[in-house]
Amino acid sequence: MEVIEAFVAQRPGAPPAAAQRLGSDGGFPVEFGPLAGFVADATVTDVFVNGPGSVWVDRGTGAVPTAVTIEEAPLRDLAVRLMSLGGRHIDEATPCVDARLHDGIRVHAVLPPVSTRGTLLSIRLPRIRRLSLDDLDADGFFPAGALASLRALVARRENLLVTGAGGSGKTTLLSAILGAASPAERIVAIEDVAELRIDHPHVVSLEARQANLEGAGEISLERLVREALRMRPDRLVLGECRGAEVRELLAALNTGHDGGAGTLHANSLQDVPARLEALGALAGMTPTAIARQTVSAIGTVLHLERRGTQRVLAQTGRFALDDAGRLRVVTP
C-alpha cells in the first residue's frame, strides 16, 4: 500500500489521497500505465492522447496539455492492452475501436495509418459518485421550477429525449432521471458502449458488440432494441440514438412502452428535427414518417448546454408537425 501511495504521489496529475477512481482490481488503475494518475483523479472528465508526446486532460474547464509524454511503441501497446481488457481487438485490420472498462470508463483508440499522428486515445471518465436530480439541482443544473416539472414528467412516465452537444451532460442527466423512477419498475438500457450509471435497484444493461476478425458475431443496437422488448421493460432506454435503431425505438415507444428515454447529439434545440430526419433516412424512413412517429412517441425534449464549467438544462420543448407535415419543436 505504501508503494502505491508513493507511486500516486509522484505521478503527474496525481489525485489527492481522497476520492480516487479505482482500477479493475479495486486498487490504483495501473492498467492505464503513465495515464493512471489522471484516470484516478476524481476531477478529471477526459484524457486525450494525440499521438506520442501529446497528452491532454479536461477537468471540466476544457482540455489543457500536460507534461506527460509517451513514445509511440508503448502508446500502441497501451491501446492494445486497454482494448483487450475491454473485450475488444484492435490492429491494422480494425484500427478504430471503442471499449468499456470496469466502472463505465470509455476508451476509444485509433491506430496508424488511419491516424496520421500516431496512436490516439480518448478516455471518457464517469463521475465517481452517481448524481441524483437533487445533486444536479444543487450544482445549478436546472433553472427555477424545472426540477419539479421534470419530476412530474418522470412520475407520469412520459417518454423523454435528452439532447445536447458532446460533453453537455446528457448521460449524467439521463442516469439521474432513471434513478428517480419507481423502484418497482424494471429498466432495460441499451447502449453502444455502456456508460449509464443508474442508481436504481432493477436495471438491466445491454451492450452492442462489434463483429469479430472474420466479420461475424456483430450484435447491433437495432437488434438489441428488439431483444429488449422481449424482456418486459417498464422503461426502455436507448443510451444514444445514432443510426437506424431510431426506427425500432420509436416503434417501441408507440406501442405502449411508456417511460422510455434516450439521448441525441444536437447543437441546439432547433437542430433536433433535422438530426432525427437524418437518422430516419438511415432506417429508410421518409421525413413525414419520422415526423409522425416522433410526435406520437416522444413527449418532451430536454436540451442541455455546457457553459464554461457549468452544464445546464437550457431549453425544453415538444414535437409538433408543421404545415407540410415535417417535424418541428415547439417551446413553451
UniProtKB/TrEMBL annotation:
InterPro entries linked to this entry: P-loop_NTPase (IPR027417), T2SS/T4SS_dom (IPR001482), T4SS_GSP_E_ATPase (IPR050921), TadA-like_ATPase (IPR022399)
Provenance organism: Conyzicola lurida
Protein name, as recorded: Pilus assembly protein CpaF
Pfam family, one: T2SSE
Parts forming coiled coils: none
One MF annotation (Gene Ontology) recorded for this entry: ATP hydrolysis activity
Top-level taxon in the UniProt lineage: Bacteria
Stretches assigned to the Bacterial type II secretion system protein E domain: 32-289
CDD domains given in the database record: VirB11-like_ATPase
Species classification: Bacteria, Bacillati, Actinomycetota, Actinomycetes, Micrococcales
Similarity section: Belongs to the GSP E family.
